[in-house]
Amino acid sequence: MPKIAVLQMCSGVDPEVNFAAVAAAARDAAGQGAAVLFTPEMALLLDRQRDRARGWIESDGAAAMAVRVAELAHDTGIDIALGSMPIGAPGGKWANRALYCRSSGGTPVSYDKIHMFDVDLAGGETWRESAAYEPGRDVVSIDDTPVGRLGLTICYDLRFPALFGELGNRRCNCIAVPAAFTKPTGAAHWHVMLRARAIEAQAFIIASAQVGKHEDGRETFGHSLVVDPWGEVLLDMGGEAPGLAFCEIELDRIAEVRAQMPALANRRPVPTSPA
Q1: Torsional sign, CA 40, 45, 49, 55
Q2: Are 13 and 44 contacting, i.e. CB atoms less than 8 angstroms apart?
Q3: pLDDT tens digits along 36-73
Q4: Among residues 10, 101, 155, 172, which one is catalytic?
Q5: Which of 37, 77, 252, 263 has the most other CB atoms within 10 Å of its CB?
Q6: Cα(150)–Cα(206) distance, rounded to whole angstroms?
Q7: How far apart are CA 225 and CA 101, in angstroms?
Q8: Mean pLDDT by 10 residues, the chain (275 residues)
Q9: Domains annotated on the chain, with CATH
Q10: Dihedral of CA 224/80/169/139: which sign?
Q11: Residues 113, 172, 183, 247: which is the catalytic one?
Protein backbone atom coordinates (compact mmCIF):
# COMPACT_ATOMS: atom_id res chain seq x y z
CA MET A 1 0.00 0.00 0.00
CA PRO A 2 2.06 2.99 -1.23
CA LYS A 3 2.12 6.17 0.81
CA ILE A 4 1.94 9.48 -1.03
CA ALA A 5 2.61 13.06 0.04
CA VAL A 6 0.39 15.94 -1.10
CA LEU A 7 1.81 19.46 -1.03
CA GLN A 8 -0.62 22.38 -0.81
CA MET A 9 1.15 25.64 -1.71
CA CYS A 10 0.73 29.40 -1.88
CA SER A 11 3.25 29.89 -4.67
CA GLY A 12 4.52 33.36 -5.49
CA VAL A 13 6.51 35.21 -8.12
CA ASP A 14 10.01 34.09 -7.06
CA PRO A 15 10.91 30.67 -8.51
CA GLU A 16 13.75 30.19 -6.01
CA VAL A 17 11.43 30.63 -3.03
CA ASN A 18 8.92 28.24 -4.55
CA PHE A 19 11.59 25.65 -5.36
CA ALA A 20 12.84 25.83 -1.78
CA ALA A 21 9.32 24.98 -0.56
CA VAL A 22 9.13 21.99 -2.90
CA ALA A 23 12.60 20.84 -1.86
CA ALA A 24 11.76 21.05 1.84
CA ALA A 25 8.57 19.07 1.23
CA ALA A 26 10.45 16.43 -0.75
CA ARG A 27 12.94 15.92 2.06
CA ASP A 28 10.18 15.77 4.66
CA ALA A 29 8.04 13.40 2.59
CA ALA A 30 10.95 11.08 1.87
CA GLY A 31 11.85 11.04 5.56
CA GLN A 32 8.30 9.99 6.41
CA GLY A 33 8.33 7.11 3.93
CA ALA A 34 6.28 8.54 1.07
CA ALA A 35 6.94 7.11 -2.39
CA VAL A 36 5.65 10.06 -4.44
CA LEU A 37 5.29 13.79 -3.75
CA PHE A 38 2.48 15.57 -5.63
CA THR A 39 2.62 19.36 -6.02
CA PRO A 40 0.05 21.87 -7.40
CA GLU A 41 -0.24 23.53 -10.77
CA MET A 42 2.31 26.33 -11.29
CA ALA A 43 4.24 25.19 -8.24
CA LEU A 44 7.41 27.03 -9.29
CA LEU A 45 5.93 30.31 -10.54
CA LEU A 46 2.43 31.73 -10.07
CA ASP A 47 2.36 35.16 -11.68
CA ARG A 48 -0.52 36.61 -13.69
CA GLN A 49 1.65 39.61 -14.68
CA ARG A 50 2.98 38.03 -17.84
CA ASP A 51 5.42 40.79 -18.71
CA ARG A 52 7.16 40.22 -15.37
CA ALA A 53 7.04 36.44 -15.70
CA ARG A 54 8.29 36.40 -19.29
CA GLY A 55 11.92 37.06 -18.44
CA TRP A 56 12.23 33.92 -16.35
CA ILE A 57 9.99 31.66 -18.43
CA GLU A 58 11.83 32.42 -21.68
CA SER A 59 15.30 32.32 -20.13
CA ASP A 60 17.53 29.36 -19.45
CA GLY A 61 16.33 29.56 -15.85
CA ALA A 62 13.06 27.73 -16.46
CA ALA A 63 14.71 24.85 -18.33
CA ALA A 64 17.39 24.66 -15.64
CA MET A 65 14.72 24.53 -12.94
CA ALA A 66 13.15 21.48 -14.58
CA VAL A 67 16.54 19.78 -14.38
CA ARG A 68 16.84 20.77 -10.72
CA VAL A 69 13.49 19.18 -9.90
CA ALA A 70 14.68 15.92 -11.51
CA GLU A 71 17.91 16.11 -9.50
CA LEU A 72 15.89 16.76 -6.34
CA ALA A 73 13.90 13.57 -6.91
CA HIS A 74 17.10 11.59 -7.33
CA ASP A 75 18.86 13.18 -4.35
CA THR A 76 15.93 12.77 -1.93
CA GLY A 77 14.93 9.30 -3.13
CA ILE A 78 11.28 10.18 -3.79
CA ASP A 79 9.41 10.46 -7.09
CA ILE A 80 8.11 14.00 -7.67
CA ALA A 81 4.96 14.70 -9.67
CA LEU A 82 5.46 18.41 -10.27
CA GLY A 83 1.92 19.64 -10.92
CA SER A 84 3.16 22.09 -13.52
CA MET A 85 5.51 24.92 -14.34
CA PRO A 86 5.54 27.48 -17.17
CA ILE A 87 8.22 26.94 -19.76
CA GLY A 88 8.99 28.30 -23.23
CA ALA A 89 7.61 26.31 -26.14
CA PRO A 90 8.19 26.35 -29.91
CA GLY A 91 6.22 29.02 -31.75
CA GLY A 92 6.68 31.83 -29.25
CA LYS A 93 4.10 30.83 -26.67
CA TRP A 94 4.62 28.97 -23.40
CA ALA A 95 3.59 25.52 -22.17
CA ASN A 96 1.87 24.79 -18.86
CA ARG A 97 3.89 21.63 -18.28
CA ALA A 98 3.62 18.87 -15.71
CA LEU A 99 6.74 16.82 -14.98
CA TYR A 100 7.02 13.38 -13.45
CA CYS A 101 10.54 12.87 -12.10
CA ARG A 102 11.62 9.45 -10.90
CA SER A 103 13.90 8.98 -7.92
CA SER A 104 15.86 6.49 -10.04
CA GLY A 105 16.79 9.26 -12.46
CA GLY A 106 16.29 9.51 -16.20
CA THR A 107 14.42 12.01 -18.33
CA PRO A 108 11.20 13.30 -16.70
CA VAL A 109 7.88 12.45 -18.33
CA SER A 110 6.07 15.63 -19.37
CA TYR A 111 2.46 16.56 -20.04
CA ASP A 112 1.31 19.90 -21.46
CA LYS A 113 -2.10 21.13 -20.32
CA ILE A 114 -4.61 20.53 -23.11
CA HIS A 115 -7.53 22.78 -22.12
CA MET A 116 -6.93 26.52 -21.83
CA PHE A 117 -8.70 28.51 -19.10
CA ASP A 118 -10.41 31.26 -21.13
CA VAL A 119 -13.32 32.54 -19.05
CA ASP A 120 -15.14 35.63 -17.78
CA LEU A 121 -16.43 34.94 -14.27
CA ALA A 122 -19.51 36.61 -12.84
CA GLY A 123 -17.45 38.22 -10.08
CA GLY A 124 -15.37 40.17 -12.60
CA GLU A 125 -12.35 37.88 -12.97
CA THR A 126 -11.19 37.41 -16.57
CA TRP A 127 -8.65 34.81 -17.66
CA ARG A 128 -7.18 34.21 -21.13
CA GLU A 129 -4.70 31.40 -20.76
CA SER A 130 -4.59 30.84 -24.52
CA ALA A 131 -3.13 34.33 -25.03
CA ALA A 132 0.19 33.14 -23.63
CA TYR A 133 0.03 29.33 -23.56
CA GLU A 134 0.00 26.77 -26.34
CA PRO A 135 -2.37 23.87 -25.58
CA GLY A 136 -0.94 20.39 -25.37
CA ARG A 137 -2.00 17.73 -27.85
CA ASP A 138 -1.18 14.42 -26.19
CA VAL A 139 -2.86 12.39 -23.48
CA VAL A 140 -0.15 11.13 -21.13
CA SER A 141 -0.09 8.21 -18.73
CA ILE A 142 2.92 6.65 -17.02
CA ASP A 143 3.35 2.96 -16.30
CA ASP A 144 5.16 1.48 -13.32
CA THR A 145 5.04 4.34 -10.82
CA PRO A 146 4.77 3.49 -7.11
CA VAL A 147 1.01 4.09 -7.45
CA GLY A 148 0.67 2.02 -10.61
CA ARG A 149 -0.32 3.54 -13.93
CA LEU A 150 -0.62 7.30 -13.41
CA GLY A 151 -2.56 9.68 -15.68
CA LEU A 152 -1.55 13.33 -15.90
CA THR A 153 -3.96 16.27 -16.15
CA ILE A 154 -3.85 19.91 -15.04
CA CYS A 155 -6.55 22.05 -13.41
CA TYR A 156 -9.11 23.15 -16.09
CA ASP A 157 -8.74 19.72 -17.72
CA LEU A 158 -10.99 18.58 -14.88
CA ARG A 159 -14.03 19.98 -16.70
CA PHE A 160 -13.56 17.78 -19.77
CA PRO A 161 -14.67 14.21 -19.06
CA ALA A 162 -13.46 12.86 -22.40
CA LEU A 163 -9.87 13.20 -21.21
CA PHE A 164 -10.64 11.26 -18.04
CA GLY A 165 -12.58 8.75 -20.14
CA GLU A 166 -9.43 8.05 -22.13
CA LEU A 167 -7.38 7.70 -18.94
CA GLY A 168 -10.05 5.31 -17.68
CA ASN A 169 -9.81 3.34 -20.92
CA ARG A 170 -6.08 3.07 -20.25
CA ARG A 171 -6.96 1.61 -16.83
CA CYS A 172 -5.01 4.22 -14.89
CA ASN A 173 -4.76 3.41 -11.20
CA CYS A 174 -4.40 7.07 -10.25
CA ILE A 175 -4.91 10.41 -11.99
CA ALA A 176 -3.13 13.57 -10.90
CA VAL A 177 -5.17 16.80 -11.03
CA PRO A 178 -2.86 19.60 -9.83
CA ALA A 179 -4.69 22.91 -9.74
CA ALA A 180 -4.86 26.61 -8.99
CA PHE A 181 -8.66 26.89 -8.85
CA THR A 182 -10.23 30.28 -8.23
CA LYS A 183 -12.25 30.60 -5.04
CA PRO A 184 -15.66 31.04 -6.77
CA THR A 185 -15.27 28.10 -9.13
CA GLY A 186 -13.66 25.97 -6.44
CA ALA A 187 -16.47 26.53 -3.96
CA ALA A 188 -19.04 25.65 -6.62
CA HIS A 189 -17.48 22.72 -8.44
CA TRP A 190 -14.15 21.41 -7.07
CA HIS A 191 -15.32 18.62 -4.79
CA VAL A 192 -18.19 17.39 -6.93
CA MET A 193 -16.15 17.22 -10.14
CA LEU A 194 -13.19 15.47 -8.55
CA ARG A 195 -15.49 12.86 -7.03
CA ALA A 196 -17.28 12.44 -10.37
CA ARG A 197 -14.01 11.95 -12.27
CA ALA A 198 -12.83 9.35 -9.75
CA ILE A 199 -16.11 7.46 -10.13
CA GLU A 200 -16.07 7.68 -13.94
CA ALA A 201 -12.45 6.59 -14.35
CA GLN A 202 -12.66 4.16 -11.41
CA ALA A 203 -9.30 5.46 -10.25
CA PHE A 204 -7.80 7.37 -7.36
CA ILE A 205 -7.75 11.12 -7.95
CA ILE A 206 -4.81 13.01 -6.41
CA ALA A 207 -5.45 16.76 -6.58
CA SER A 208 -2.77 19.02 -5.10
CA ALA A 209 -3.92 22.64 -5.03
CA GLN A 210 -2.79 26.20 -4.59
CA VAL A 211 -4.36 28.02 -1.64
CA GLY A 212 -4.74 31.53 -0.26
CA LYS A 213 -3.83 35.05 -1.37
CA HIS A 214 -0.88 35.15 -3.75
CA GLU A 215 1.71 37.80 -4.51
CA ASP A 216 0.22 38.44 -7.95
CA GLY A 217 -3.15 39.36 -6.44
CA ARG A 218 -5.16 36.23 -7.11
CA GLU A 219 -6.81 34.05 -4.48
CA THR A 220 -7.06 30.29 -4.82
CA PHE A 221 -9.42 27.74 -3.29
CA GLY A 222 -7.12 25.09 -1.83
CA HIS A 223 -8.77 21.89 -0.57
CA SER A 224 -6.17 19.49 -1.95
CA LEU A 225 -7.99 16.16 -2.17
CA VAL A 226 -7.40 12.46 -2.53
CA VAL A 227 -10.51 10.60 -3.72
CA ASP A 228 -10.84 6.83 -4.04
CA PRO A 229 -12.40 5.00 -7.04
CA TRP A 230 -15.79 4.81 -5.30
CA GLY A 231 -15.83 8.60 -4.86
CA GLU A 232 -14.95 8.64 -1.17
CA VAL A 233 -12.80 11.59 -0.07
CA LEU A 234 -9.78 10.20 1.78
CA LEU A 235 -7.96 13.51 2.30
CA ASP A 236 -9.09 17.16 2.29
CA MET A 237 -6.44 19.71 3.28
CA GLY A 238 -8.90 22.58 3.66
CA GLY A 239 -8.86 26.05 2.20
CA GLU A 240 -6.91 27.99 4.79
CA ALA A 241 -3.17 27.39 4.52
CA PRO A 242 -0.32 25.60 2.74
CA GLY A 243 0.95 22.34 4.16
CA LEU A 244 2.07 18.78 3.58
CA ALA A 245 -0.21 15.81 4.14
CA PHE A 246 -0.01 12.06 3.59
CA CYS A 247 -2.37 9.38 2.33
CA GLU A 248 -2.07 5.63 1.71
CA ILE A 249 -3.28 4.40 -1.69
CA GLU A 250 -4.96 1.01 -1.38
CA LEU A 251 -4.45 -0.23 -4.92
CA ASP A 252 -6.50 -3.39 -4.30
CA ARG A 253 -9.51 -1.11 -3.91
CA ILE A 254 -9.44 -0.41 -7.66
CA ALA A 255 -10.12 -4.02 -8.64
CA GLU A 256 -12.86 -4.26 -6.02
CA VAL A 257 -14.66 -1.22 -7.42
CA ARG A 258 -14.25 -2.28 -11.04
CA ALA A 259 -15.64 -5.72 -10.25
CA GLN A 260 -18.57 -4.33 -8.25
CA MET A 261 -19.46 -1.71 -10.87
CA PRO A 262 -17.96 -2.78 -14.23
CA ALA A 263 -18.58 0.54 -15.97
CA LEU A 264 -15.24 0.55 -17.79
CA ALA A 265 -15.82 -2.97 -19.11
CA ASN A 266 -19.39 -2.07 -20.16
CA ARG A 267 -18.43 1.18 -21.92
CA ARG A 268 -19.59 1.42 -25.54
CA PRO A 269 -19.07 4.07 -28.24
CA VAL A 270 -21.79 6.71 -28.13
CA PRO A 271 -23.54 7.07 -31.50
CA THR A 272 -23.53 10.56 -32.96
CA SER A 273 -26.25 12.24 -35.00
CA PRO A 274 -25.55 13.43 -38.54
CA ALA A 275 -24.66 17.13 -38.75
Answers
A1: negative
A2: no
A3: 999 999 999 999 888 899 989 988 889 999 999 999 99
A4: 155
A5: 37
A6: 10
A7: 21
A8: 98 98 98 98 94 90 94 98 93 92 97 87 72 92 97 97 96 98 95 98 98 95 98 98 98 96 88 73
A9: 3-261 (3.60.110.10)
A10: positive
A11: 113
The question of whether 155 is a catalytic residue gets the answer yes
- Residue 143 is which amino acid? D
CB 57 within 8 A of CB 45: yes
* φ, ψ of residue 269 in degrees (nearest 5): -60, 140
SS (H, E, C) the chain: CCEEEEEEECCCCCHHHHHHHHHHHHHHHHHCCCCEEECCCCCCCCCCCHHHHHHHHCCHHHHHHHHHHHHHHHHHCCEEEEEEEEEECCCCCEEEEEEEECCCCCCCEEEECCCCCEEECCCCCEEEHHHCECCCCCCEEEEEECCEEEEECCHHHHHCHHHHHHHHHCCCCEEECCECCEHHHHHHHHHHHHHHHHHHHCCEEEECEEEEECCCCCEEECCCEEECCCCCEEEECCCCCCEEEEEECCCHHHHHHHHHCCHHHHCCCCCCCCC
- For the entire predicted model, the pTM comes to 0.95
Distance between CA 94 and CA 12 in Å, rounded?
A: 18
Amino acid sitting at position 238: G
Contact 155/165 with Cβ under 8 angstroms? Answer: no
Per-residue exposure over 153-185, b if at least 16 CB sit within 10 Å of its own CB, e if not: bbbbbbeeeebbeebbebbbbbbbbbbbbbbeb
3, 10, 16, 41: the active-site residue: 41
- In the residue annotation, 213 being an active-site residue is answered as no
CA pair distance 234, 228, nearest whole angstrom: 7
Note the maximum CA span of the chain.
58
